[in-house]
Write a structure and sequence with these properties.
Distance between the termini: 42 Å
Oligomer: single chain
Largest sheet: 8 strands, parallel, barrel
CATH class: Alpha Beta
CATH superfamily: Divalent-metal-dependent TIM barrel enzymes
């Protein structure tokens, strides 16, 4: 081998190593502050049977963050806030967000104040260290007419202010009706995006649920740039049912989940990615969410 050949190979090796380090550094920097978690509704039956064992299994898989879907009478999965926080702390888990429906009875329209039960929801969420309080649906009575809908978006904005006082953010999680139902000829989802103050209320975009109504995440992310700090990462497969689709392991369905994640990072302002799977195609839920996390890791998380 000639001297010039040796020098070429040596310089090329150094260049490639430097490029690899630069790429790794750039990727790490671009993802600083991101959160990846699991919506516990994904393992709802397991959580019902044995919450501690289920959370232990999730922690062993590599999950670091969970999003709750069970807060009843000031208890999380049957545990007081203090008890549940200790369970999570002992397992090295954090709970940055949680789902609790803000119902019509949580707002006293006559006195124009939130009821004690909703104030307690905010109080307990803050105690748990949550960053986000998410209402995962909306009662039909809140959207009977366009004017009803607008009034409740004002309440949403006020709830955003309430959460901010405790250092948190209030948000809403979509299903499919927001894209299929219209009031005054406007989709419910668009009414929400127009009337919710983005400084006070965020939309946790579920990229799977909307597909049932024919909406696509990539289109919505493009329509409302910068409005989706949180994504529910989900995939869907076609099934013979009234809804036509059900969730599946990431990468096995028809939702361009990875593309939605990338676009969310690029233009959506997305920082929080919550995995959710509600159907399992005859596979154990815990095994399914383990595979979901493995897919996310392959995607760079």
């Amino acid at each position: 081998m000639t001297t010039s050949r040796r020098m070429f190979l040596k310089n090329s090796t150094v260049l490639l190593a430097g490029t690899a380090l630069l790429s790794k550094s750039a990727i790490g920097a671009s993802r600083r502050g991101e959160i990846v978690g699991i919506q516990l509704y994904s393992v709802r039956d397991d959580m019902k049977k044995d919450p501690v064992a289920t959370l232990t299994a999730l922690a062993k898989m590599g999950y670091k963050n969970v999003e709750h879907a069970n807060y009843i009478n000031r208890k999380f999965y049957g545990y007081t806030a203090a008890e549940f926080k200790k369970i999570l702390d002992d397992l090295g888990l954090k709970m940055p967000s949680g789902h609790t429906v803000m119902a019509k009875n949580h707002w006293d329209a006559d006195k124009k104040v939130f009821t004690d039960s909703w104030k307690w929801t905010i109080e307990d969420a803050a105690f748990m260290g949550q960053k986000y309080v998410i209402s995962p649906s909306m009662d039909g009575s809140m959207r009977t007419t366009y004017d009803d809908m607008v009034r409740y978006m004002d309440v949403f904005n006020l709830c955003g202010e309430l959460c901010q006082k405790s250092g948190m953010k209030f948000g809403y999680h979509n299903h499919s009706f927001e894209f299929s139902e219209k009031l005054n000829g406007i989709k419910v989802f668009d009414i929400m995006m127009q009337k919710m103050d983005p400084k006070r209320v965020l939309m946790q975009l579920d990229i799977g649920n909307m597909y049932i109504a024919g909406a696509k995440a990539l289109d919505i992310l493009g329509q409302y740039p910068g409005r989706f700090e949180m994504l529910h990462v989900k995939d869907e497969i076609a099934v013979n049912s009234p809804e036509k689709y059900e969730s599946a392991i990431l990468g096995k369905g028809i939702i361009p989940a990875r593309e939605a994640i990338d676009l969310g990072r690029k233009i959506g302002g997305t920082k929080v990615f919550i995995i959710e799977q509600e159907s399992y195609q005859n596979q154990a839920p815990l095994q399914s969410v383990k595979e979901d996390l493995e897919v996310m890791k392959k995607w760079g998380f």
